[in-house]
Amino acid sequence: MTIIIRSRAEIDAGVEALRSLDPRLAAMHDLVGEPPLRLYPTGLEGLAWIIVSQQVSVASARAIWARTKAVFAPLTAERLIAAQDEDFRAGGLSMPKIRTLRTVARALADGFDLEGLAELDADKAHAELVKLKGIGPWTADIYLMFCLGHADAFASGDLALQEAAKLLLGLEERPNTAELSAIAETWRPWRAVAARLLFAYYAYCKNRPGAPLPAGV
């Protein structure tokens, strides 16, 4: 059964299950507290935000997104398809991001159902999303985790998650994507809640240089 996170109740259920599954996550939860719900809009707006915000600072992403939404008001697949390059550039978008947004817009116009991916399990939904040219594994996983709320989606290619796992597990180097995917298998079907805990732990350690590992780990 596919579990969809839409409220704190699902986060709480996931945390409770993960505490039983993995004592390391229990100790980390004791340290960082309740992970945030953190949900973005579904559909084109949510995926477009993720595309726009990649590989730039948070401040830059917000500025570019504000300009892009002002140019494309309302933000629809039809509006993106009809737009000229100059419209996209007015929002501050690079050519790779322009191409990806156009690909997504055309797919939606042809019937691709972004919100319908919530009806698939996380792995199948991921496989469908990455079929769209320009949508890589990280983009797909972040959309599934934070837009659709798939409880078992997990962005194993995310550097913050890799660094948090390194600190949590006492590894000498960050685990790569395949290694972190293998580690996260233990956390099914709540991998997206485990990711939220790891993001919180990464922020905790980043804001506290020399922060200790969770007690007992």
List keywords for this structure.
217 residues, mainly alpha, Endonuclease Iii, domain 2, 2 domains, 61% helix, globular
Model description:
There is one protein chain. The protein is an all-alpha fold and about 220 residues long. The chain folds into two domains: about 10-40 and about 155-205, Endonuclease Iii, domain 2 (Orthogonal Bundle); about 45-150, Hypothetical protein, domain 2 (Endonuclease III, domain 1). It has twelve helices and no strands. It has helices at about 10-20, 25-30, 45-55, 60-70, 75-80, 85-90, 95-110, 120-130, 135-150, 160-170, 175-185, 190-205. The two termini are about 30 Å apart. The relative contact order is 0.17. Residues about 210-215 have low confidence and may be disordered.
Tell me the span between the first and last alpha carbons: 32 Å
> What would CATH call the homologous superfamily of the largest domain?
Hypothetical protein, domain 2
| Most strands sheet | none
Count of the separate structural domains: 2
Q: Architecture of the largest domain in CATH?
A: Orthogonal Bundle
H and E string: HHHHHHHHHHHH
**What is the level 1 CATH name of the largest domain?**
Mainly Alpha
CATH topology of the largest domain: Endonuclease III, domain 1
Strand content: under 5%
Structural class: mainly alpha
Quick one: overall form?
A: globular
Q: Number of helical runs?
A: 12
What value does the average pLDDT take? 93
Could you name the ranges where pLDDT drops below 50 across 5 or more consecutive residues?
211-217
Report the strand count. Answer: 0
Q: Bin the helical content.
A: 55-70%
Radius of gyration: 18 Å
